[in-house]
Specification:
The chain is an alpha+beta fold and about 90 residues long. The chain has 2 helices and 5 strands; from the N terminus they run ββαβββα. The relative contact order is 0.25.
Length: about 90
């Protein structure tokens, strides 16, 4: 049986552990940190397209702006939602 290697990444300063094959978007949503917000209410919402076409799920992953729905979660990644980056300014 193959060994299951979990990834530990940092999401807006929180360390989380995810299973192999998890996307950064799924890791964020499982941690209650969705990068997606309703334009009407501002409440967190699910992914619009889930295939990288809409660019709404972008976040800063290891210093680069990435579409989180297409980005695999890897051990040691540092992910910051754009909302958190904007708060610094």
């Amino acid at each position: 049986m193959p060994e299951l290697t979990l990834a530990v990444l940092t999401l807006d300063g929180r360390r989380v552990t995810v299973a192999p094959g998890t996307t950064v978007l799924a890791a964020l949503q499982n941690a209650g940190l969705s990068p997606l917000r309703s334009s009407l209410s501002g409440e967190p919402r699910g992914a619009l397209c889930g295939m990288g076409s809409c660019y709404e799920c972008r976040a800063v992953v290891d210093g680069l702006l990435m579409r989180t729905c297409l980005t695999p979660a890897r051990d040691g990644q540092n992910v910051r939602r754009l909302l958190e980056v904007a708060r610094e300014f």
